[in-house]
Amino acid sequence: MLLKTYTKEFFRPKCMPGAASIHCFAHLGESVRDVLPYLNAELGGSAYTQDPPSVTFKAHGKLISVHAQKIAINALRDEDEADKILAWLRQAINDTWHRREEIEPCFESPSRPVLIDILRLLPKTNCRECHEPTCMVFAARVAEGVKDQNDCPAMGAAQQKQLERYLSQFVFDDAF
Fold this sequence. Notes:
Blueprint: E1 6-11, E2 22-28, H1 36-43, E3 47-50, E4 53-59, E5 62-67, E6 70-76, H2 79-98, H3 115-121, H4 135-144, H5 157-167
Antiparallel strand pairs: 1-2, 2-6, 3-4, 4-5, 5-6
C-alpha cells in the first residue's frame, strides 16, 4: 500500500469568502510521486507536469490535482463529499501502484481542443439560444467538454457534423 494516511484541510476561496462550496487539501503522510505517471495513464489526466510532478483530472465537475505530498479538490458541497472522493482516490492510487507492472506510464498531457478552432466552426451569431452570453463563451465551454455541437441551436446540420468530427479526436471522459 503506497498511500496510507492523510490529513484534511478545508477552506473557502479567499476571493469569494461567502461561496457555498469549499475546497480541500489532503496532506499526504507518504509521497505518491512515483505513482503519478501511472495514475495519469489510468485516470486519463487532463494535465500532467513532470517538474514538479503532478497530475490533474476532472471528475464529477471537480478539478482534482494530485501532487507528490498533497491532493487538492475544488468546489465541494461539504466534507462528506470530500471524504468520498478522497477514499475513492486513495483506493485508485493504491490499486494503480499495485498494478504498475501492467501499466504503461504516461508522462504527457492529452491534446485539447483549441478554442479558436471551435469558434471558427460556430455560426458566431451570439444569439444566446445556447444559454451562454456569446459564441466565444460557448466555444470555451465546448473546449472544456461541458457543451458540444448539439447544444448550439443556431448550427446547421453540416456545421454540427464538422464540430462533432473535430471534437471526436479528443477524449472528454469522467474519472468516476
